[in-house]
Amino acid sequence: MIDNPLPNQVMRQMDEDAQAEKFKEHCYTLAKTICKEHSVYEELIESFQEWVHNYCIDDSDFVREISSNNNKDLIDDWWEEKGEDLVDADWTTPYDIDPTPQYLYDDSGGEPPVSAEEYARNSLDSKRESHGHRYYSSNW
User: Fold this and answer.
1) Distance (Å, rounded) from C-alpha 13 to C-alpha 6?
2) Tens digits of per-residue pLDDT, 66-117?
3) DSSP 20
4) Burial (CB count <10 Å: 0-12, 13-18, 19+), residue 44
5) Are 48 and 75 spatial neighbours (Cβ–Cβ below 8 Å)?
6) What angle do CA 93, 99, 103 make, to 5 degrees?
């Protein structure tokens, strides 16, 4: 009886495919984690994942480097390389960061928050000052 090498080849290929898929999944998960840590726009994450996976395939040490390096630099490198292809009118940067200064959100130096009632009262007082008698009910 002749041994057929084909089943062994098929099994070997299936094992390689499964390992490649597992490696791809690992790279994509790692890339998504990096994106979440640095507030990258949701629409750009898939492109970054593909970019990271391609680098991981070319350089197996790259996966270890990702874990130990400042990953913001990695996002900046990707944006520099692929950003022009992904540019949308709203994207000047890959980071989804609110440009409002932090002091406007808290009481650490900005103006204190004003309630709607206080805002309306101040508005009416301002109108009274600027328009004189028209807003005083006693003059009707």
Assistant:
1) 10
2) 665 667 888 888 888 887 777 665 677 787 776 666 656 665 555 667 788 8
3) H
4) buried
5) yes
6) 155
Residue with tokens 């004189």: 132
Helix (H) or strand (E) holding 109: none
Please report, for the chain, the start and end positions of each structural domain, with discontinuous segments joined by +.
1-96, 98-140
* pTM of the shown model: 0.58
Q: Is the dihedral of CA 95, 96, 101, 106 positive or negative?
A: negative
Nearest residue to 41 (alpha-carbon basis) of 98, 104, 102:
98
In angstroms, the first-to-last Cα distance of the chain is: 115
Q: Is the dihedral of CA 101, 104, 107, 109 positive or negative?
A: positive
With contact defined as beta carbons under 8 Å apart, do 34 and 66 qualify? yes
